[in-house]
Amino acid sequence: MTEAGRQLIATILDLEPRLRVPRGMLPQLAALASAWLEAGHTPGGVRAHVQRSLPGPKQPIHKPGGLLRYILSDVPPASVEEEPRRPEPVQPRIAHLRECEGVHTQARLFRPEGDEEFCGECLRGRLAEDPIRL
User: Fold this and answer.
1) pLDDT band at 131; cut points 50, 70, 90
2) Three-class SS of residue 99?
């Protein structure tokens, strides 16, 4: 049992008010928490595991010390992750849009198929005015 194990149990007990553990069980729980830390788990990972394993918020916990002992008794091997991968940056939906060069009350964006400078409405209007110009 290490001091880190004692501190970890103290923070785990602060996670949930239903986790009222008798003082006599604290050394045993601290030893179990120390085993998790020695296996390479982080304190945050252990806390997250305990939180995931707790019953729903409306369900009572009748024997919190026994529940924590059960949750912490099986120490899985620590996963060896280099560094959490950052997701690829997502381009905003407007990244491929272009502002129409035509006369509009408000800026009008359109998705060009090539080098167009005008939206479809402006192109149709210009074509109607002067079909040879385009």
Assistant:
1) low
2) strand
pLDDT above 90 coverage of the chain, percent: 31
Local structure of residue 90 (DSSP, 8 states):
P
Dihedral of alpha carbons 82, 84, 87, 89, sign: negative
At 37, the amino acid letter reads L
- State how far the Cα of 65 lies from the Cα of 67, in Å rounded to an integer: 5
Mean pLDDT, range 83-110, rounded to an integer: 83
Contacts with 49 (C-beta within 8 Å, 6 or more apart), sequence order: 41, 71
Gap between the Cα atoms of 68 and 27, Å rounded: 12
> Domain boundaries in the chain?
3-73, 94-129
